[in-house]
Predict the 3D structure of the following.
Amino acid sequence: MKPIRGRFEKDAAEVVKEYTLSLPYDKHLYRQDIAGSIAHTRMMARQNIISEKDAELIIMGLVSIRREIEQGTFPFRPELEDIHMNIEARLTERIGEVAGKLHTGRSRNDQIAVDMRLFIKETTSETVNKLRSLQRALVGLAEREQDVIMPGYTHLQRAQPILLAHHLLAYFEMLERDIARFHNCFRCADVLPLGSGALAGVTYPIDRYFLAQELGFSSISQNSLDAVSDRDFVVEYIADASMAMMHLSRMAEELILWSSSEFGFIEIDDSYATGSSIMPQKKNPDVAELARGKTGRVYGNLMGILTVMKGLPLAYNRDLQEDKEGLFDTIDTLHSTIEAFTGMVATLKINSERTIEAVGKGYLTATDIADYLVGKGLPFREAYDVVARLVRYASSQQKELSQLTLEEYQSFSPLFGQDVYVITAESSIEARDVIGGTAFRQVAMQIARVKKIIERDTHDGD
Ligand code: ARG
């Protein structure tokens, strides 16, 4: 079998063959392509478009080709352009000219659309599972280190004491939203385009509902022009991946900061860190840095696919072939990043002496002291002023608030009593006892809640 040259008198120029070639990357779609062909063949036999006997032969041939590809013995031929033509040509070699009946009532345009949708559906499920593993690692660490107190930041300035577990669970929430987005991406892809033909539908009495059932699609497309040219689900995947990478990149930034000597809050396990080729003392957070960097490439892929799509007239255009490399690269990048983070988080060592030391410096309980004065009857704005002056004074004396004498306190307001010393980082945390707050009790409840979410979803997936 030759590449399709139908009406042409001349063979394509070498450079054109090279230029249009998609086999090196679309061969990853062989499983989906063969599944689509088998379903199509079964449907044609049921509808008496081809005979049962021919269908059996074709299906047997396709199954043996799948085996060849999986065993690495399939003779890939780049001159046949893409995975579709490679499989069809091989089928002809194996079962003879009956193979020519496979492409009845089908076009490569609806064929690639179905391949891509099947692929995205499988991939989103994998992505969700990986995100769940990372969530599990985060929750595991939060649970193990439930008592660790650290500074919470705004503007990267120490603001109020919080629980490390509370901080870790913030990432759980981000990943939870990512998972919801990938579930939605799955739904976008879950529509059968097969039966749209090249663009306008097909002339054979096909049964599209049967095809949907065979291939596990929950609905069928209602417009053939849209069906062969829609790649919204690819854009959706890369957009969702961009958002997830953005979250991972934020986490990366914190891991990098926290593992610096300046912070010293964490130590990344040796197996997730790297050394320097010249400075023997160094332990570098390269995994986190690479994740931060790779996020840029995934954003680039999103811009890429959006730009590919923006000027396309209906229906199929060859530009659509450019949907693959950016998608595959995005998937590899996202999956490997999540996997590396899962291990890195699971093995993270927390240096709670350093986090608590940091909480003790920088007047983190100032808000609590203002709240204390409010409790004694002072309006909040006045209380705020008193504590602002108090902090300025303490800072000029190079003292922390806990080191001030009662006399010093009272020189700022007579409302201060001995009970002001009850205010500590722990009491500050304990006081934030609202849903979503950092109080020990609240965080323990959140840990219990999110563990249920993970468990429930793990069972759903089985
Ligand atoms: N390689 C093409 C793609 O990825 C497959 C469809 C080709 N169709 C065509 N009419 N040239 O989109």
